[in-house]
Amino acid sequence: MKKYLLIVLLFGALLLTACGGGAQSSDQTVALDPVPADYAGKSNPLGSDASTAGAKVFQANCETCHGPQGHGDGPAGQALDPKPKNLPDLAAQVGDDYLFWRISEGKPGTSMVAWKGILTEEQIWQAVAFIRTLK
Ligand code: HEC
Description:
By secondary structure, the chain is mostly helical. It has helices spanning 2-24, 50-61, 63-66, 87-93, 96-105, 121-131. It contains six helices and no strands. The longest helix has 23 residues, at 2-24.
């Protein structure tokens, strides 16, 4: 019985350390890059109804990697390193200027390319409006 208790205690301690480590390396604690001056403070010039057009932009250009709801579960995203992360989670932490900047300029070191030149500014703002509707 004593031995059993010891094992339970040891196991509990192990579990606690494992969980603590996991929380520290979680994505949520990674600081986000600051928005460069060229983009900082920009806000969406389009109304929220732009999200309807944005849904089409997203389906055609982003969904294969980011997934239909932006959860990072698109078929083409699975093989990537890093994988696309959860866009609604990110959107809750950043302003429209951040999203517009990232989509326009891409994310160095990842498969996220710069979309300016491929999409118009209006289409990028529409995509931003759509991302704002995701949960
Ligand atoms: C080839 C796959 C791929 C496509 C297509 C793609 N992305 Fe990405 N995207 C990524 C990856 C990989 C990242 C980097 C990991 C991450 O932060 O999600 C990323 C990052 C992002 C980020 C920024 C995340 C951050 O941390 O700053 C946004 C916003 C974004 N994508 C939106 C879009 C939009 C909108 C489109 C379509 C116009 C699109 N992506 C198309 C793969 C893709």
